[in-house]
């Protein structure tokens, strides 16, 4: 029996932690995330992959032996070699409703890490609800690659390359764009198709694979949160080896020098300072699929035939008449202006 099932009834009770009331609704969200974490740990143990809690989840494990009372997500880090292997293995290890979300498995999801989601639940980011994103928006946990940290010059180059790919990728899937942004969408979509999703995904990750863990004194979440990210770079000896720690009713792994990592990341981490959740502003629902909620609550026409499709999403490209149909509606002159503007970034040639 999985531990989540064993402790479900006991866990799903309201409680007070650090003078903060945690109701059944939040406990249900936490429980859904713990189910994802337990499955993730099971895959790692099966294939000999190492991982460690990072960010607020590490702080929660060390200070609270579980969730921070005002947090609503789980963050995990993996050394790049283990991370790459996990991404390959998880596609076959996860069964519905669990789903490995990457830019390749779920086109339109513009992230530089991966998520495991429960497709039978809902976690809709309200900041982007008007964008009509049709990618999986079930409850999730985040899994980040841990890479070597290069020089300031290397970091600046990595950030520039990453931002370019994010802009092109994001624009390629922004179907509700208007005006000049609409032209940019058509051009970016063409670039996305010409370069190919696999090449773009490889380039996205190769940016950070270039700085190896072996050659670095510091390692960390280089591909995530470039702004003020120094706090997420740690001495290699702090995090290469791990130990066990409790996280609610699960047994997880944390860096051997968790104190040093948390001090670098948060300063005086032992001092309680109530803050907003990292993902505040998310519409959670543990009883309904995100497709049903987007259809009924947010009036997404894209999911109006959700039931007859048995959970399958509409094909983004065929719904629009093929990959290059939008280009036929554009004036060639406008296309070339946009193309030249993008090629000046000196990145397109590296992606094709």
Protein topology:
Blueprint: H1 3-11, E1 15-17, E2 20-22, H2 24-47, E3 52-53, H3 55-63, E4 75-79, H4 80-93, E5 98-101, E6 114-118, E7 122-125, E8 139-148, H5 152-172, H6 180-195, H7 197-209, E9 218-220, E10 233-235, H8 236-239, E11 242-247, E12 250-255, H9 258-266, E13 282-285, H10 290-296, H11 325-328, H12 332-343, H13 348-351
Parallel strand pairs: 4-8
Antiparallel strand pairs: 1-2, 3-4, 5-6, 6-8, 7-13, 8-9, 9-10, 11-12
Features:
352 residues; alpha+beta; 2 domains; seven-stranded mixed beta sheet; two-stranded antiparallel sheet; 13 helices; 41% helix
Give structural notes:
- With 352 residues, the protein is an alpha+beta fold.
- The chain folds into 2 domains: 3-150 and 214-316, no CATH class; 152-210 and 320-352, no CATH class.
- The protein has helices at 3-11, 24-47, 55-63, 80-93, 152-172, 180-195, 197-209, 236-239, 258-266, 290-296, 325-328, 332-343, 348-351, and strands at 15-17, 20-22, 52-53, 75-79, 98-101, 114-118, 122-125, 139-148, 218-220, 233-235, 242-247, 250-255, 282-285.
- Strands 3, 4, 5, 6, 8, 9 and 10 form a 7-stranded mixed sheet that branches.
- A hairpin with a 2-residue loop joins strand 11 and strand 12 (250-255).
- The protein is globular.
Low-confidence stretches: 313-335
Residues in helix, %: 40-55%
How many DSSP H or I helices?
Answer: 13
Derived from helix and strand composition plus strand pairing, the structural class reads alpha+beta
The whole-angstrom Rg is 21 Å
- Which outline best applies? globular
Q: Write down the secondary-structure element order.
A: HEEHEHEHEEEEHHHEEHEEHEHHHH
Q: State the distance separating the first and last CA atoms.
A: 49 Å
Q: What number of structural domains do the residues give?
A: 2
Write down how many β-strands occur, each being a DSSP E stretch of 2 or more residues: 13
Overall pLDDT, averaged? 87
| Major pleated sheet | 7 strands, mixed
Strand content: 15-25%
């Amino acid at each position: 029996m999985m531990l989540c099932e064993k402790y479900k009834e006991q866990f799903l009770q309201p409680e007070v932690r650090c003078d903060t009331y945690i109701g059944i609704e939040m406990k249900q969200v936490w429980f859904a995330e713990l189910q994802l974490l337990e499955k993730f740990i099971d895959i790692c143990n099966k294939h000999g992959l190492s991982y460690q809690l990072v960010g607020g989840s590490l702080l929660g494990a060390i200070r609270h032996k579980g969730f921070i009372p005002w947090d609503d997500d789980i963050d995990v880090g993996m050394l790049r070699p283990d991370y790459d292997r996990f991404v390959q293995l998880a596609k076959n290890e996860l069964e519905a409703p669990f789903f490995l979300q990457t830019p390749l498995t779920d086109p339109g999801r513009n992230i530089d890490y991966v998520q495991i989601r429960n497709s039978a639940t809902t976690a809709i980011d309200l900041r982007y609800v008007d964008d009509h994103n049709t990618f999986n928006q079930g409850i999730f946990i985040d899994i980040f690659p841990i890479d070597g940290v290069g020089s300031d010059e290397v970091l600046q180059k990595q950030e520039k390359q990453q931002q370019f790919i994010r802009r092109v990728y994001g624009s390629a899937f922004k179907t509700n764009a208007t005006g000049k942004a609409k032209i940019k969408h058509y051009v970016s979509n063409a670039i996305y198709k010409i370069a190919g999703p696999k090449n773009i995904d490889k380039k996205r990750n190769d940016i950070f694979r270039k700085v190896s863990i072996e050659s670095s004194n510091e390692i960390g979440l280089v591909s995530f949160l470039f702004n003020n990210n120094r706090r997420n770079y740690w001495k290699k000896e702090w995090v290469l080896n791990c130990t066990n720690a409790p996280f609610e009713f699960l047994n997880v792994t944390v860096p051997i020098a968790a104190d040093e990592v948390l001090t670098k990341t948060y300063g005086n981490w032992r001092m309680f300072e109530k803050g907003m959740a990292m993902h505040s502003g998310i519409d959670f629902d543990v009883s309904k699929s995100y497709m049903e909620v987007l259809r009924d609550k947010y009036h997404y026409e894209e999911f109006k035939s959700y039931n007859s499709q048995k959970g399958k999403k509409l094909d983004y490209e065929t719904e629009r008449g093929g990959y290059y149909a939008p280009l036929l509606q554009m004036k060639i002159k406008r296309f070339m202006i946009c193309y030249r503007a993008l090629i000046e970034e000196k990145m397109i040639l590296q992606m094709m």
